[in-house]
Description:
Blueprint: H1 10-19, E1 24-30, H2 34-45, E2 50-53, E3 69-70, H3 74-78, H4 82-99, E4 104-113, H5 118-131, E5 144-147, H6 148-154, E6 165-174, H7 176-189, E7 193-195, E8 198-206, E9 209-217, E10 223-233, H8 239-245, E11 252-264, E12 273-277, E13 282-288, E14 291-295, E15 299-300, H9 312-325, E16 337-347, E17 363-367, E18 372-377, H10 383-393, H11 395-398, H12 418-422, H13 425-432, H14 436-446, H15 450-459, E19 466-467, E20 470-474, H16 475-484, H17 490-497, H18 500-503, H19 512-523, H20 527-548, H21 553-567
Parallel strand pairs: 1-2, 1-10, 2-7, 4-12, 10-18
Antiparallel strand pairs: 3-6, 4-6, 5-6, 8-9, 9-10, 11-14, 11-15, 11-16, 12-13, 13-14, 17-18, 19-20
Helix pairs in contact: 2-7, 2-10, 13-14, 15-16, 16-19, 19-20, 20-21
Amino acid sequence: MSVDRSSLSGQRREEQIRALGARDFDMVVVGGGVTGAGVALDAVSRGLTVVLVEADDLASGTSSRSGKIFHGGLRYLEQLNFGLVREALLERDLMVERLCPHLVEPEPFLFPFTRRWQRPYVGTGVALYDLFRMSGPRSVRGHRHLSRRATLAEMPDLAPERVTGAVQYYDVRVDDARHTMTLARTAASLGATIITRARVVGVLREAGRVRGVRVHDLETGGHVDISARVVVNAAGVWADEVQSLGGQQSIAVKPAKGVHLVVPGDRINSRTGLITKTRDSVFIIRRWFDFWLLGTTDTAWEYDREHPLASKQDIDYLLGHANQWLRHRLEPDDVVGIYAGLRPLLASTGGAADSTAALRRDHAVLEGPLGMITVVGGKYTTYRLMARDAVDAATRPLRRTLPPSATDRLPLLGAVGFEAIRHQRDRLARESGLSGDWIDHLLGRYGTLITELLDLIADNPSYARPILGAPHYLAAEIVYAARSEGALHLVDVLVRRTRIFMETADRGTHAAPDTARLMGEILGWSDAQRSEEIAAYRRLVDAERKAAAMATDEKAAEAWQLAARGAS
């Protein structure tokens, strides 16, 4: 019987980690965020043997805490970074046109004018935004100018006294955590080995060059040495720490914290998102399925990189900017979800810039020490280019010529045939017994892999029920996450395989028991293990709530440390 290589299961992980020390790989990728998963896919699709190791879960860092949008970056036009804007726009459209149409959706945004002179100035910038895309696919609509009346018709909750008109343009929404996980599964389907909860604790050296890594298996407590001809360090905000394990540190990463708030969809009456300038960055309101996202902050984070936290200061800042533009005020009680992520911005080793907003979003790829390639910086939208450049740079330590990258023509799992299966929506609903809305929900999360979910339901009709405490998700999705998507712990499902953590006012605590029971059936948890998973998740939620009540980042970090010590 053939083995589904794309399936990431706990059992398969155990088999693969036992075999790691018995073979030599061409490449070890350190980091399971979007860049690392992209590197693994690019490398394996060029014929290399690849293993990816991640210290936590796939997308557990920045790649599940982004702005959740593929965009060109209007702000970068003002910085005259035309190359980055053009690259990002072409990548954005490629996602919709070919690579992952099931995981993305074009969304409109208003750039409101408060002065009449802004129309020609901003309009020119947005026209450039569209002009940069002329040589690529045009699956995302271009911009249009709106009168004051048309602007308020698009966004009735916009404060009428603030605006004289607007320009409307489109960017592309993405579920970042699911996208990163799907990248990793696509790499696995081509033969890459994907190992989560395996922390790199050392770098192997031979004859003065890097020859692999030593990892600590956080599930079993054991260690294993992985031999490889080249190590690609794609560890994001931890990239400088990984590089230093190899005996050389030529980069300094300055983490910049970005916070987003989640409010219910009925709190803002609008058919469009909104983007406005702030003193040194931008403020954005964007649609997120049945919710709105408000973001983002851009401040230096000098505390634990594993636990970026939102403080009361962040929440007040974002609500304050929202209320400058909205007819009806948003209050703290309207916020149902909060998340904070760190952007891995590059700073010179001689001294860091004062403002993280001023640091460039371009990426850097460099070799050092010999046998290690580090890729860092950049933005989520350009992950594929970062991965391509990192694998290109690996040709020298590999001492071989590689075929050119083909990931611009390599659809992710669930993408091939997506349009055709979407046209069969009514048939799928009829045969499965699910409503059309549930079929739309599953298509937008799994694409053509929806058939695997429907097979689970056909074999066990009880999986067609909604999750207790999270009625927007089916039991089948929890089972599938544990069986095929590499979820090993309750937090993996509630925070990343689903969006329950950020979409429920209780942050998923009521959904935790039902979710843990379903996961435990697949992963073989005992009653004690299931209880500990629930307790650990509730401690996490409680600690983040306490941190969000603190006035500043420093106080939030202190609150987290106190809660963590009390939970240990």
